[in-house]
Structures are given as C-alpha cells and as structure tokens.
What does this fold into?
Amino acid sequence: MSAEVKPDAGMSLCPLGTETPPERELVCIFGTGDLGRSLGQRLLQTGYRVVYGSRRPHSCGPLPQGAQVMSHTEAAQLAAVVIVCVHREHYDFMEATAPQLKGKVLVDVSNNSKKGLYPESNAEYLQSLVPAASVVKAFNTVSAWSFQNGLSDAHRQVYLCGDSVEAKQAVRELATRLGLSVLDRGSLSAAGEVEDFPLQLFPEWRLPLCLATGLTAFFFFYLVIRDVIYAYVVQDKDISFRIMVSLANKVFPIVSLIMLSLCYLPGVMAAFLQLYRGTKYRRFPDWLDRWMLCRKQLGLLALAFAFLHVLYTLLIPIRYAIKENRTTVLDTTTAWRTDSYYSMGILGFALYVLLGITSLPSVSNALSWREFSFVQSKLGHLTLLFCTLHTYLYGWNKFMRPSTYKWWTPPGYMLCLVVPSVVLVLKLLIVLPCVDRSLGRIRQGWERTGPEGEGTKPLMGGAQM
Amino acid sequence: MSAEVKPDAGMSLCPLGTETPPERELVCIFGTGDLGRSLGQRLLQTGYRVVYGSRRPHSCGPLPQGAQVMSHTEAAQLAAVVIVCVHREHYDFMEATAPQLKGKVLVDVSNNSKKGLYPESNAEYLQSLVPAASVVKAFNTVSAWSFQNGLSDAHRQVYLCGDSVEAKQAVRELATRLGLSVLDRGSLSAAGEVEDFPLQLFPEWRLPLCLATGLTAFFFFYLVIRDVIYAYVVQDKDISFRIMVSLANKVFPIVSLIMLSLCYLPGVMAAFLQLYRGTKYRRFPDWLDRWMLCRKQLGLLALAFAFLHVLYTLLIPIRYAIKENRTTVLDTTTAWRTDSYYSMGILGFALYVLLGITSLPSVSNALSWREFSFVQSKLGHLTLLFCTLHTYLYGWNKFMRPSTYKWWTPPGYMLCLVVPSVVLVLKLLIVLPCVDRSLGRIRQGWERTGPEGEGTKPLMGGAQM
Amino acid sequence: MSAEVKPDAGMSLCPLGTETPPERELVCIFGTGDLGRSLGQRLLQTGYRVVYGSRRPHSCGPLPQGAQVMSHTEAAQLAAVVIVCVHREHYDFMEATAPQLKGKVLVDVSNNSKKGLYPESNAEYLQSLVPAASVVKAFNTVSAWSFQNGLSDAHRQVYLCGDSVEAKQAVRELATRLGLSVLDRGSLSAAGEVEDFPLQLFPEWRLPLCLATGLTAFFFFYLVIRDVIYAYVVQDKDISFRIMVSLANKVFPIVSLIMLSLCYLPGVMAAFLQLYRGTKYRRFPDWLDRWMLCRKQLGLLALAFAFLHVLYTLLIPIRYAIKENRTTVLDTTTAWRTDSYYSMGILGFALYVLLGITSLPSVSNALSWREFSFVQSKLGHLTLLFCTLHTYLYGWNKFMRPSTYKWWTPPGYMLCLVVPSVVLVLKLLIVLPCVDRSLGRIRQGWERTGPEGEGTKPLMGGAQM
It folds into this structure.
C-alpha cells in the first residue's frame, strides 16, 4: 500500500474549534446509550463529526472512535442539529439546556413502551420544553441494531414530522445520507401517530383474525353436535376421537371457502353500489371501506386454512390403516365425479398459492396495476369458482337425500356454499356485457346525473376491484 | 402541551400573494379528480402549498384542506410546476392556457386505457399543444390509491422523461420529497414507453406461457391417443375417466421437466457459441437473447407444473381405494429402485422450491451476483439432474420391453427425456477442466483471434450463465 | 406530433468545447468493455454527456450513441469525474495519466475474480498510483447487465467509500441520479471489504450448513447401526433398502427439531446471562453473539428439513403397497393419541412455514419491530412446543419399554428431544411473572449494581429476542 493514502478522514479525531474542512458537518447526540452510540458510529462512518452530550461526560462508557463527549450545554452550542437519544422520562434536563438549544433542530427519536402512556406525544412534549427549538420527530422506526448492522436488509423506512420545513429538510438530508428512505408525515401533530408505528401489532389483521376465529368456533361446535353428539345420542357410538383430525378437516375447508368469498364480496357490492348510484364520486359507507382494506388479510387467512386442509387430507391414508378391502366396482360416472372433485380442489389450491405469492410485497411491487388487478380479480374469482365447484362436487347427490339432514340441520359444507354462490352469481351479472359497459363508464368518471358543463374529467386512479 | 407549539405549517391556508416563507414552494394541479386530490393532499402533507386549476372553480367538490382553487389561467401563473391531472381527451383547453404556461414545467401524469390508441404519446401531444413549456412525463405508475394510503408498501417507482434537464431535475426533487423512487428514462420520446408501463400485462410471461400451453396440449393428445383410445380400440375398455387425474399427472411432470431443461439449454448453447467463436464480444443471435431473457419465467412455470405433479401424486392413495391385496414379496433391488425413484423426486422438488424462493425479487436482491449465479446455475443443474434421474428410474427396465411401445410410439416420459439428457451431457462437457479453462478465459475478455495491442481489457460485467 | 418538440437532448452529440448548457455534466469513462459501455449508455440516458478514454480510440468497437472517444489523457482533462472501468491488471497505464487526473474524482468500479489475490484493495492501489486524485470505490456491486436492463428489479445497492467527503458527495449524486441506492461505508480503507461483497458466497450460511451436515451425518450413521446393522446381525434380515426413504425420514425430523431448538437456545441463554449479570450493558461472549447472528439461517434450514420430512411422510402410503389387512380394532385412547400426534405435526409445520414466510426480506421489512419479535419469538416458541409434543407423542409409551433400547442405545427421536426440552423449560422459567419483570427492567436499562447518579438513561434499541 502506498504511503500517499490519506488518513481515514471519517474516523479521525479533529480538534473541535480549529479550522475543519467546511463540508464535514457536526452533529450533536444527547445520550450515550445503545441507540446514541450506534447512531453516532453510523454518522462518523458517513463522514459527519459527532459530539456527545452527557450528564457525566467522564464516565459514560465506551463511545465510537472519533467522537467527543462533553456536557449537554457545551455540546448543544457546537452543532445545528441535536439528536435526543434519551428516554422521555428523563427529558426534564432539557429545560435547563433550552437557552443553548434556541434555533437548533432538535430530533426526537424516542419510543414509548406502550400506547397511550402520556397525553401528548414525546415530540410535542419536547417542543413544549424547548419552545425556541424546531423539534422534528424521526428515526424512531430504526433500531440501534439496524444502525450497527449496516441496514442492508433491515428496516430503512424513516417517518418524519415537524412544524419547521427547514428543520425537516435538514433531518431529511441527514437521513438520506445515512442510507435511509424518508417519508414526510406532515406537522408535529402527527408525531403521536409516528410514535405508535413501532408499537402496533398487526392492526389490519385484527378484524380478519376475529372473523376467522368466530367462524372456526361456530362450525366446530356445529359439527361436534351434528357428528359426535348425534352419533353418541342416536347411534350410541363414541367417536369423540374424530374431533382432532376428521372434524378439523371439515372445519378448515369450510372456513377457508367462506373467508375467500368474503374477500371478493365487498368488491362486488361496491360495483353494484356504483351502478345503483350512477357515479363513483360518492364515498362508500365506512364499513365497506374498512372491509375492502382488509381483503388481502382475509385472502391470506383463507389460504392458511386451505393449506391446513390440504395437509390434513393428504394425511388420511397414513392415519389408522383400517382400509377394509373395498374392491368397489367403479362405474365411470363415479370415477369422473371423484376425479373432477379432486382436480378442482388441486387446481383451486394451486391458484390459491399463486394468489398468496402475488401478495408478497416484493412480488406485488414488481407488478403493474393492470397485472396486479388481473391476478387478484380474474384469477381470484377463478380460484373461488374452482373451490366452490370442489365443494359442490363433494356434496354431489347428497343435497337431495333426506339422511343428510340429521336433526333437520344441513351439513357444514352446504352452509358454507351460500356466500360463495352469491358472490359468483353477482360477479356473473357484473361481467355481462351490458352491465360491464355502464360500470366501465362510471369508473372512468362518467356520471348518470352529473352536471353537463364539466369538461375537465378527472383521471381514474387505478381503481382495483 | 405548551402554547408555543407552532401552527401546523403544512396545513395552514396562507393567503396567496402575501409574503410567505420562501421555502414553501407552490405547486399547481390542473384537475380535481381522484388523482388530483390525492396528489394534492400528499403535497400539502409534505410541506408544499397547492393551488388547483379548474374549469369550474366554484363547484368542483371537496378538496384537501389548505388548498386553493381558481381558474386554470390564474392557477398557472402562480406556480413554476404545473401537474396536469386531466384525461388526454380534455387536453384541448391547454392551448388556451398556453401563454400563462410559458417557461413552466408541465408534468403529464396521464395514462391511456389501451395501448396504441393515439399516434403519439400523451406527453408529446401535450408538448405540441404548449410548445413554450417544458413537459415532463412522470407519476403515471403511481395511483391515487397509493398516494392516499401512504405508499408504505405500494408502488413507489416513478419513471421520468423529458427534454429539459432542469425541468426533470425539478420534478425529480418533488418526487423524492414525496417519498418516491425516481428512474430517469431519457428524453420525451421515451414517453410512449413510460405510458405503456401501467398497461402491460405480463409481456415477459407470454412466450413461456404459450410454450407451456403448447407442450401441455401436445402431450395431452398424445397420451389420450396412447392410453385412452388405445385401450378403447385394442382392449375395448372405457378408461376415459382417467383423463382428469391419471393423465393430468402424466402430462404435468413431462411438461415440467421439458420446461426446466429449456430453462438451462440456452445457457449451455451460449457457452458453446462463445467457445466456437473464441470471443465474448460478438452478440448472440436475437432468438438466443430473447430465450435467455425468459429463463426465469420458464423455470417458474416448470415449478408450477412440478407442484401440481406433487399434489396429484400425493392424492393417489386417497382416490378410489381399489387397492387389491398386493402382498408382493419385495426383492431388495425393486425396493432400492422405487425408493431411489421417490427420493430423487422429493429432493428434486425440494431444490425446485428453493430455486423458486430465490427467484422472489426480495430474496434475489439480497444475494450477491456470485451467490445468485451459484444458486441458479449449480443448484439449478442439480435439480435438473435429480428430476431427470427420477424419470429414468421411473422407466427403469421398460425401455427395452416391446410392450411399452404401443402402436410403435414411445411413452410420454421417454419423449420428455430427450431435451434434459442433451442439456446434461452438454453441461458435462462444459465443466470438463480443459473446456472450462478456455471458456473462463473467453469470459474474462480473452479473444482467440483478437488484436494483440489492446492492453486495456474491459471488465467482465457479472456474466451469469 | 408537433414540430416544436425539442430534439432528444440526452442523445445528441454536442461538439465538446463549445458552449454547452451548464447543467449537462460531462463524465469520463476509461475502458470500453461491457461495463464501460453499459454505464455510459445509462449516463447518457439520464442526461449526462459521456466521453470515453481508450488506448485505441479509433478501434474500440461500438459505443453508445452520443458518446465520444479519445485518448486517456485527452478524456481525463475534460471531466471532473473519471470512472475507471478497467481490470486492475491494466492499471499501470494510470501512472502515465496521473498529471491530467490531479484533483479529479477517480471512481474505481473493479472487482477481482477471487478473494485475497492482492495485498491491498484495488481502490487503494489506484490511489497509490494517482495520489493527487480522490479515489472513490463505487458501483462494483452493479453489473453491466443490470445497467442495461433498467435496474427495475435488479441489484440497486451501491456501496461507497473514499477519503474525500466532496468526492464521495459527487459520486453519491451521480449514483442517485442513475436510480441507485447509496450506502456510505466510510474511508478508502474499507474498500477491501466493499470489493469482497460480490465475491462472498453465503458467509452467514456456512456455520448453520456445517452444523446441519454434521448432525445429519451423525444421526444417519447412528440409525444405520441401530436399524440396519442391528437387523442384519441380530435378526439376520437385509433391510438395507430402507436407507433411502425410511431412514431419511427419521433423520430429517430429528435434525429439523434440533436445529429449531438451537435457533431459540441462544436467546434463552442471553436472557439468563443478563439476569445473572444484572445489566444489559456488558457484551455477550463472542460465540454467543455469532450464534445469535445465525439464528435466521438455523431456522430456515430447520424448515427445509421439516419440509422434506413432510414430503417423505406423505409418500409412505404410495410406496410399496404391502399394507397387509391390519383390521386393528381401534381403542379410543390410541385414536386420540395418533390423531393428536398428527395434528401437532401439521400445526407445527404450518407455523414453521409461517415463520419462514416472515423471514422473507420483503415481508420482514414490512413488519414493525414489535410485530417481528412477536412472530419470531412468540410463534417461534409455539412452533417448537408443537414439534416437541409431536415427537413426545410419537414416542408415547415406548420410553419405558426395554425393547426400545436396542444394544442399550436410545432411539434417535429420544436423543433429539434433549435440546428442545431444555429450551422449553428455560423459556418457561423466563416467562414466569417474577423473572419476566426483572428481565424487563434490565432490558429497559436498569442495572442491579449500576451507579445511582445517572439520570440520562439510554434508549432501548429494539432488542429482539
């Protein structure tokens, strides 16, 4: 290696206060904990100079090489941007530093351990303590661990909010240079929302999961009564052991099919609502909006249940090999029926899996809107059709047989056919040429009773059904 | 919360024309439809001021809080950047506004409902209407829905094109601040291409899908003749019901194996072409280039067919339990053969799935070139080897038996062994040390008959076979 | 199309030296190979002007339209940024060009074909040849192929390092405008590391793969001795053919369960270490750190083995249909046992798959820290519990039976139960309320013997167990 190689500029400890090249900005970090140290290390690596503010500058443990430590007030005076890596509970010391922080950009990175602990967000609280500074909420979605490990496949999304546009711009530049992807969430009043991001636990999955649990519980008890208790009462047989596998393998496909049809029902309903109203510019009712937003989760849960159904079904021949020699003479009709039944099931499941794969963020991001809506709408309805036919073929000629209706109740698979059949019939109506044409016009902005003078028709925004 | 918290700058309604802080740029949007409103909302949230231009400024429905509405000409005069959220059919009003748009950046966000509707792209048409403005095509891949829902896991990729570098730079900055990822596609003449992006429907899947359909159809009819019709004619048995499952389960693995080998054939052919030519600097023939570009799709379709084959196979014992008591005395050879046959199949399928997972965009992006090519080339050929052996073991001693060749035709699995065997033999030749060495030299830029004076050898660009 | 459409500025061949619009920067590329040409094409498309430096400017083959070619020295003088697309072996000509390169930004994009070929990195070698220039290492992770194909779903991550902050800033801007995502890796001394990125071959998979291979080999030989050799020696039966499927299907689940428990063992150990030490601020021993970093890989390999186990198991009834008529009279207890056994297996596998899906980069990036740790910790331990119960139910009453212990060795599944049982018991201890509370305090920064005066408690950095 040649002697001319310059010293490692990013790591050198330049004496502060003397002439340093103007391009190497100084950033101040309050707090020398995990996050403070990792963030400082990353800043140094990217070419910033870093100074730490600490209550006990002489005993704050190991810090990244190249950084300086001093008291909070000293450190605050040196930099234009101060990142506060301190728990909210200890923000009280900030009031004492307020004079030195006047006009500075204060970055609040804190998170709480629970939602709703405090009346206002941490960032707003900080702003109230140091009113003369411009507080920006940022970085709270990135962990110390991510900063240390190079961010290469970790969480890079940073949400920014604050009242000062200049302050936000400064933090945005800093974040971009650190290799993060920045999204502006507006004014500081949005800080509460941003602080809730790392705390949320699958909010969009809650409703679909409740629905799945409810349906599973209902059909489980329904089938326990119809199968196990009926056999015990009427035939005096104990088949309670069938609960574990046989019953589960009835409940899972039933719930799966209902969930899948519930995933496509709101789209059909929205279409009919638009047809009825004759415009697309009136908002859908709130419950329909919320329903449409959780279609993806409904579909993925339906896939999970279908997956369990497949595994349970394939296990049947392994279980207890009580296969008495059914050398049944196969008539061709039965053979065709059973084979169609199995084929529909397999093809339906394969399409299901395809839909699931297209729902993966990286795959759906690689699709154009038209491709995505083709897969989710065309192939989705085809999946529903296959799975519904699979269930109808399962029933076959049992629909008419009185012995099917034990205790005058229909079997589970008949109950579960109601919703998908409705969805498929409605969808069939929609794709009729005449209905399709007027729906298409409405979705392109045409209004049945709209004002006539409007020439500047708005653009369709990739409406996906 | 302290009283000093500044008012929400991003949402306040500043009176236009009075002194506003210089940093809050004003953006003008023509059109108050879905996209116009969503884009405006997002701009306001990010800290821009927004003014709408509308034909009927007093009756254009609800707009984002903080935005103003005025006539097109008034609005155009206020801002340097004008985003045109209007359908192309209504562009004619732009000519009237042309004087006010002189020197402005005009952003065309429009899409058409079909390809090839107009002779020139929408953006070029807009440029022709307002020649004194700098038209930039952008944002057409982002939907109103994405803008509203925070873009967090939606389509963020924006393609930019335009003739003015400054105008493009202005739009690039705007897009970046909105949290979008920008890719420059060159001059305005590329607008037609950019406008086709949201309309394309799996263009790269078309060829592989046609091939898969063709192969499936061919082998289906071939096997219908050999199995069903042969049985009907020669043995007078109706086994037409076997079409649904048994025949499908013969066609799927055959097509899968052929598609998989077609996925690796072009790489081998390219290598031999390079060896024959003695250089890597001559372009491959067009058909080979196109073939190589759809290898990923060929492989994924092959995986889909293999998946169906596995499902159909695992279903066999559940179907009609006509298992007569074959208490066959197993000789060890047969046991070894069948078990090897199944093992090869399972291992081949597991590797298949691994290849499929590595093809997911997020996974392949996390791999280095060397890792990617290791998986796709080494493991890929291993998969092909396992699946081919699986098929050979299936045939076993039937290759020599005359009864196999009904009507003098070979069974389907023998036909499908041709391509993979050729690929494997050719690949074997390539990995021979002597061939491998000279191929390696060629791929590093060495030329057999190249000029001798060239010292500045070019870099190899991660050629992946 | 209107006549006023401006000529395609990005592609026009402007005469160099005359007045060109100031905004169109000129970039010089040394070397006209694959990468040089692709990079040049991309630069031209993005609006840069490009000039090539070549040893033989008059016979360097086809170059992108709009670019100029001249000698190295001439080309170097024109641009502020020079990208060196030449193999390291040919760097010697750079010394001759050194005077013209004074003060320029030199971008080294080269890679080596192997690790450790040279004592210093290519970029440091280049810097030693041209000490008066500012060398920046960049673009070496992007291939010519990616540049040509629009980068839309290819590798976009660029690592940057260099000693001059201004030079890095210039290259960063260039890379950003090319649509790449930039990560600063510090000073030029990090170039060696950056150059190793494209050469690495699954470094983080090496340890888990070795472990998996070792465990597989051990249990394979253990079971061959206990099953095959025992049967041969004691019962004089040749059951060697069982190696292919039956034995494999014993080894795979054993290895899978051990790997899964090894994936959760370090987290439990770390918790106990923190409890013992009473602080989270002391570093874990190195082996524990390394172990924790490969948990993801351990888990994914465990999933792969579980997948093979499922496939092999589902194949059982298809294999040789030697199912003699076991019309066993099922007692309810046995039925409950076997069904629980299968249910646990299926549910465990389904959760396994769920864990695998959440490990996909695009899925885990879409999760918040709390969601990710919920899935990986809560659901992960549930998976381990299900799979362990599945194995216990498999053993059932064989634990007490002397005939189980052939040659006084326990069967494989008993051996493999040791580690998961230990992990589950330790985890159970940790979630006891009293232990959980003190662990929670420690993880929030509390120290048992810590100094009392420290008010500024550091932030917890999203510690995930």
Q: What stands out?
A: The CA atoms of residues 32 and 60 of chain C lie 7 Å apart. Residues 1-22, 321-327, 450-465 of chain C have pLDDT under 50 and may be disordered.
